[in-house]
Amino acid sequence: MKKCVLHREARKEYIMKRKLYNNLINWKKNNINMPYMLVGARQTGKTYIITEFCKNEFEDYIYINLDLMENVKKVFEDTINPEEIIKSIEIILEKNIDIEKTIIFIDEIQVSERAISSLKYFCESRNPYKIIVAGSLLGVKINRFKSSFPVGKVWIEYLYPMDFEEFLLAINEEKLLELIKEKYAQMSSLPEAIHQKALKLYNQYICIGGMPASVLHYLQCEKDISKYDDNILNMIVMSYLADMSKYTENIEAIRNNKIYNSIPVQLGKENKKFKYSLVEKSARAREYESSLEWLISSNMLLKAQGIQTPESPLKAYVENNFKVYLSDIGLLRVLSKISINEIITDKNMLYKGVFIENYVAENLYSKHNELYYWSIDNMYKVDFLINIEGDIIPIEVKASDNTTSRSLNYYINRYKPKYSIRLSTKNFGEVNGIKSIPLYASFLI
Length: 445
What we know:
2 domains, eight-stranded mixed sheet
């Protein structure tokens, strides 16, 4: 397989359109006095999208990386008074800051708890400060905050890997995207040729995943999947493992690493329920719970909680059982040592089902911020449950066009949901209260 290597003079600028940009515009229009905090795993594109926003929407902006600028980090250790902070930054950067026209972007803010605490006072100040912050492990920092976190004083949003919609935008398939949305709303079939094209692109997406660097590499390879180099994703996995060592104690870093690397095995089991014994034979929950929560808080892993009673609110009926998915389907593929060819040619259909379930979990989590599944007596299971305006909707995931399902039929007969959803490679349609939605359209649910 010929890999894609671009010389510097041949490089081309690509614009990664992210749906979150509209949220940033909304913040600017309505709540700019409240500092904006963007949370997400490393390399999901936080710095890129905020930088684009700052450059495009403001006359001037200042970029501060607290992980690299120790002198600015020390400013927050000395004071959390906004006026004093701004004056100190002006002196350090040798720059006059016009607070009416300038937005200040503080990156890697998780390295300074005092900097996070200062956001409360920026929010309460009468001066029109425009502050936006981001950090790759902010979720962990928030959960383990030792001081008083500025609740209600910060506009918090999450950035996840690019979903299939953003992938289509990145590769200039806007017309295809609009047609998919139209047919979803109508629940009517796409023309077969268009359906097959969408399935082909979806298959390529589940190979490369939604990490912006991976999508960019795919574009640089002129969208030729045969030239794609897995080193892009392997490097991201290595950076994740490095974070575990850099920001945790040695024993916790080791446990984090073991849990992260166990996910392909966890998902490969028939019921996919997370088991500490699959991390390490002698592992106990009390030893590994903290590490698991660290990985979930960092957005590296997604947790789905088991339900036996599908009633609203689902959170009130969670059981002790849960599943854990990886944050990105491309990372799961390289961590599982599965080649692109195996996915494209359907050589490994048994494990491909694992991939597809993880892919759907990503889509649902990024939109609903929680995941649930239903199972009973180890005999029947429904992959996901979602609450749509008070109605509990079951979602079944199929990796192919084989849509026979004993479990979904049992669930429908027992609980009589308003409707059900089956995700597969079949076209849009609806029969007997079951909506057939192609896997490539799961981002719309």
